Amino acid sequence: MIEKLNLKIRPLLDIHEKLKDVLALANIKTPKIVTCGMQSHGKSSTLESITNIELPSKSGTCTICPIKICLREAKEKEYFKIKFEGEELDDSIVYENFKNIKDKINEYQEIVKQKYNLKGKKITKDTIIQVNVYKNNVPNLDLYDLPGVTHVDGIEEEAEEIYNSFLKNDEDTTVLLILNGGDDLTNSSVTKWMKNAVNYKNRFIQVIAKSEQIKKFEDKFNELKSFELNTKLFLIINKVKDDNNLKYLNDDNEIKK
C-alpha cells in the first residue's frame, strides 16, 4: 500500500520541489506542509510513518519549538545534517547513522532551552530546528512539526501563537491535522483553531492516529463529518493486538471490514 501511494504522490512532490526553487527566485511563496495536534496524540508516529526516520517521542512536552524536516533524494550515500533554520549548513559535519537523528534533535532542543531560558514544559516560536535528510527512494518534501498542544497554563497560549503564525492566514499551507481516535475530536483545541484558519476546509487533512482506539466507527465518522472538510481522511494504526474487528473507509467512503 505504501509503495503504491509513493508511486502516485512522489512525482507531484518532486514537481513541487522544483517549482519551489524557481518561484523563490521570483519572490513567490510556495506551499508548506505542517503537522499539528494535541500533545501525545500520535504526531511523532505519523511523521515517522511518512519520513521513515525516528523522532523524539515521550509523554509530556517533547517538541519545544517547530522542527523542519527536509527530505531529499540521496545522490550517493545516505546521511543527514542538522542546524537552526536560517544558518548555513556546515558541509563538513554529516551524520550517517539515522538512529542518531532523535538524539541530535534533542541536543539542539537543549540549546534552545538554554538560549531562551525555557524551564519545565515551556515552548518557543522564536527558532526552528532544521533536519536535512538525504535517503534513497524518498520524495523531495519539507515538513514542519509543530509542538503538541496542551492545556497547561502558558503553553497553550504559546502554542496558539505558533499555530497562528503557521496556519491562520497562510492559504498556501497544507495542514496534517493529527487527531487521537480515542478522544472527543470536536472539543479539541486544535480543531477549534482550525475553524479560525483561512480556507481551512480545503487545507486541513484529517489523520486519525491511534485509530485502534476507536470504539464506534460510525459515531467517529459522523463526528468528523461535522468539520465539513473537502479532503480525504487517513487512519493510522499504532498498536493492535487483534485486528479482526478493525474497519476502514474505501475510496467511496464506505465503511468496510
Tell me what you see in this structure.
The chain has 257 residues and is an alpha/beta fold. The chain folds into two domains: 1-30; 31-256, Rossmann fold, CATH 3.40.50.300. The protein has seven helices and ten strands. It has helices at residues 2-25, 43-51, 101-115, 155-168, 189-194, 200-203, 217-225; strands at 32-37, 67-73, 79-84, 129-135, 141-145, 173-180, 204-209, 233-235, 248-249, 255-256. The strands form two sheets. An eight-stranded mixed sheet has the order 3-4-2-5-1-6-7-8, sandwiched between helices. It has a two-stranded antiparallel ribbon with strand order 9-10. A hairpin with a 5-residue loop joins β9 and β10. It is globular, with a radius of gyration of 18 Å. The protein starts with a helix and ends with a strand. Residues 240-257 have low confidence and may be disordered.
Can you lay out the helices and strands and say which pair or pack?
Blueprint: H1 2-25, E1 32-37, H2 43-51, E2 67-73, E3 79-84, H3 101-115, E4 129-135, E5 141-145, H4 155-168, E6 173-180, H5 189-194, H6 200-203, E7 204-209, H7 217-225, E8 233-235, E9 248-249, E10 255-256
Parallel strand pairs: 1-5, 1-6, 2-4, 6-7, 7-8
Antiparallel strand pairs: 2-5, 3-4, 9-10
Strand content: 15-25%
Going across the major beta sheet, what is the strand order? 3-4-2-5-1-6-7-8
* Strands, total number: 10
Mean pLDDT: 79
**Count of the separate structural domains:** 2
CATH top level of the largest domain is Alpha Beta
